[in-house]
Structure formats: structure tokens, C-alpha cells
Design a protein that fits this description.
alpha/beta
Length: 211
């Protein structure tokens, strides 16, 4: 089984790439989905978040108020690190379990969609290849403001909270440029998919052994 770590900057269009990979047949593990699961009512992480950030981050329905919490952590680096310390170990554990599940099912290629792959190192030591979805910062800003209704200052803070996409691209084994239209993006994704399927058949070496 070939394990791919997929990442990108906020609003670079990673969801578009993931959708195409699913169409091609990839098994996908969504770290954001796992992040939502670990803070559901009744989960230990939600109580830890309440204790650290106060009851105001929990809505009347008992659900985490993500918008309120996001405003706190994107304006305070220490708060963001505290949140990551609560949720990331639990995300990592669930991701490991999903990987083993797909492996048992005989999936040839499994894509781990992890927004903070390089920042946190979650699963970085597991994957065979890393891929970054790239778009220039000005494109990220436009998309983020339109999608989330943010001001320019708010959008810039969210982008600044992550490693620059250019740096992620430098570290990655492959880059998908998602700034030149959907057809060109799909062309790049399809080419990578063919390469991964070929390598999954047994011709690849683990990334850490290359070079």
C-alpha cells in the first residue's frame, strides 16, 4: 500500500484535489473530519477545551463553537498551541487506526488529507510521499475572504498561522499548482495518480530510503 500525505495552504483548493482523487478511486482519510469527531459532545477533548478556553466556546447545544474558538486561537499563538496539544494526539491515533483499516482492505493507495502536515508532523513519519496543493498568496486571500466572509486582516492572520505555502512546496515530493484552472489541476492530479498506482504495484521505495 502506498501512503500519500496531502497538504496545502488554507484556501489553496485542496478539497478540489481530494474530490478528484476520490473520483479516481483513492481511499482518503480526512484529518479535518477526524478533528471534528474528537471534539464531539462526550469526547474527553471537548471537556479539556472547555477547561482551557472557558464555557463560552461551547454552544447551548453542547457542541463546540468553532467560530468563537477560531477567533481566539488565530489571534493567540499560545492558545493555538494549547488547542493543538489537546486534539492532535487524538487525531493521530484515529488516523493510524484508519490507515490500518484501509491496509487490511487491500487499498493500493491511501491519501491522508492533513492541512498541517508539515507544521505538526502528524503522520509525516508514516507517509511514503508528500504532495502540496499550491496557489499564490493573493489567490488564497481572495478565496478565503469570499468563502469565510473574512476581512483582509483576518484572512492574512489565518494564512500567517500556517507555514508559507512556498515553503511547503519546497519540502514536498510533488506540487499541484491549483492556480491555472480546473482542467490543468486535474491533469496534474491524474498524472500523479497514474504514478502512484504504478508504484503501489511494487516498484516504489519508501520516501525515507530515497536519495
Amino acid at each position: 500500500m502506498l501512503l500519500i500525505g496531502l497538504t496545502g495552504g488554507v484556501a489553496t483548493g485542496k478539497s478540489t484535489v481530494v474530490r478528484r482523487l476520490k473520483e479516481l478511486g483513492a481511499a482518503v482519510i480526512d484529518a479535518d473530519q477526524l478533528a471534528r469527531e474528537v471534539v464531539e459532545p462526550g469526547e474527553p477533548a471537548l471537556e479539556e477545551i472547555r477547561q482551557r478556553f472557558g464555557p463560552e466556546v461551547i454552544g447551548e447545544d453542547g457542541q463546540l463553537d468553532r467560530a468563537r474558538l477560531a477567533r481566539i486561537v488565530f489571534e493567540d499563538e499560545e492558545a493555538r498551541k494549547a488547542l493543538e496539544a489537546i486534539v492532535h494526539p487524538r487525531i493521530r491515533s484515529r488516523m493510524r487506526a484508519k490507515i490500518e483499516e484501509f491496509k487490511a482492505q487491500g487499498e493500493p493507495v491511501v491519501v491522508c488529507d492533513i492541512p498541517l502536515l508539515f507544521e505538526t508532523g502528524v503522520a509525516l513519519d508514516w507517509v511514503d510521499r508528500t504532495v502540496v496543493v499550491y496557489a499564490p498568496k493573493e489567490v488564497q486571500l481572495q478565496r478565503l475572504m469570499a468563502r469565510n466572509g473574512l476581512t483582509l486582516e483576518e484572512a492574512e492572520r489565518r494564512i500567517a498561522a500556517q507555514m508559507p505555502t512556498e515553503e511547503k512546496a519546497r519540502r514536498a515530493d510533488a506540487v499541484i499548482d491549483n492556480s491555472r484552472g480546473l482542467e490543468e489541476t486535474f491533469r496534474q492530479v491524474d498524472a500523479l495518480w497514474k504514478e502512484w498506482m504504478r508504484d503501489a504495484a511494487g516498484t516504489h521505495r519508501p520516501r525515507q530510503e530515497e536519495g
